[in-house]
Amino acid sequence: MVTVKLIFDIVAFASVMVLVVSGLAIVASLMGIFNFAHGEFVLLGAYTVYLFGTLGLPIWAGMIAAPFVVAVVGVAVEMAVVRRLYATPIIAMLATFAVGLIIRETVRILIGGQYHEIKEPLDGFFEIAGVNFSMWRTLIIVATITLMVSAYTFLKYSRYGLQIRGAMENPSLARVSGLSTSRLYSATFASGAALAGLAGALIVPLFSLSADMGVRFLVQAFLSVMLGGVGTFEGPMAGAAMVGSMVPGFQWLREIPVVVDHVTPVLAEVMVFVVALIIVKFRPQGLIARGRR
Fold first, then answer.
1. In a domain, 258, yes or no
2. 39: number of CA atoms within 13 Å, CB side?
3. Which of 33, 142, 176, 197 could form a disulfide with 66 if both were Cys (CB 3.0 to 4.6 A apart)?
4. Cα–Cα distance between 191 and 151 in angstroms, integer?
5. E strand or H helix at 155, and its extent?
6. pTM: predicted TM-score of the whole model, two decimal places
7. Residue 150 sits in which domain range?
């Protein structure tokens, strides 16, 4: 029987995935480029929190600073690398993969090959109907919902969001209209990087910090985007929610006596990929896919 606690865990992990995928979704859907350094942007957000802690500064300060720090890195990557390769998206993706590798190995040098625990700034639980709920996971759920609604509203209805979508759809027409496409590209890439940094800052207390932290999330984020469909903001979010729900869902099978010895955590993650690939096979355009607007 599905318990309230299991539902909460599923929603919490789905929120983590949505938070991680949001930055990648903005860049992929609006710019048509998969940023393979996205996982390392998440890592940089987590590392910023760790760095603040080692300097004796409040963890909350690190979490506030993380999206701004990673946004600056994102602008630098866009201006130095991605901007020169918009005409060749495949090469741009390979270039971002190289950038991600450089970031990952740099962090590895800084923190070593060890795992570092980050204490939750808001620890403890609250109880409802005899069930304990993590306060930090609850905050992540609330923060994710707030950010997604705000990002969707901004991109869909604001004047600047309209300019971004117009510049991505028809760059030459946007330039003729007097828009600075290079500035819009930088702002879009920086926004995606900032969301990745914020995601890393919020989820690092749930996962141990290591140099390879971003690799796991990059794979799952890429799968979420492919599952949800490129071309809209809500498509990858739906894919992220599905992937994020399946991971704890399959792991819950281990609580069933008949299958407990057969479903390992690794096998549970493999099952997620199998289900996702089957869906992509029969719906290659994704769950929610339409032309960019």
1. no
2. 23
3. 197
4. 10
5. helix 135-157
6. 0.84
7. 4-213
Amino acid identity for residue 241 in this structure: A
Distances (CA, A) of 205 to 84, 200, 265, 277, 284: 37, 9, 20, 30, 35
Helix (H, G, I), strand (E, B) or coil at 126: strand
> What's the Cα-to-Cα distance from 229 to each of 16, 213, 224, 243, rounded to whole Å?
19, 25, 8, 13
| End-to-end alpha carbon distance in the chain | 43
Query: How many separate domains does the chain show?
Result: 1
236-267, pLDDT tens digit by residue? Answer: 788 888 777 776 666 555 555 544 455 555 66
Q: CA torsion, points 161, 164, 169, 173, in degrees to nearest 10?
A: 120
Burial class (CB in 10 A: 0-12, 13-18, 19+), 275: middle
Q: How far is it, in rounded angstroms, from Cα 254 to Cα 249? A: 10
Residue 285: how many other CB atoms lie within 10 Å: 12
In a domain, 88, yes or no: yes
Helix H or strand E segment including 249 = helix 234-252
**Which residues is 209 bridged to in the sheet?**
116
CB count in 10 Å sphere of residue 56: 6
Long-range contacts of 59-65 (CB under 8 A, 24+ apart): 59/118, 59/119, 59/121, 60/121, 62/201, 63/121, 63/198, 63/201, 63/202
Report the C-alpha gap between 22 and 88 in whole angstroms: 23
pLDDT tens by residue, 132-141 = 788 888 998 8
- Within a domain: 31: yes
Q: What distance in Å separates the CA atoms of residue 5 and residue 11, rounded to the nearest whole number?
A: 10
The Cα–Cα gap between 278 and 284 comes to 10
Q: Is residue 51 part of a domain?
A: yes
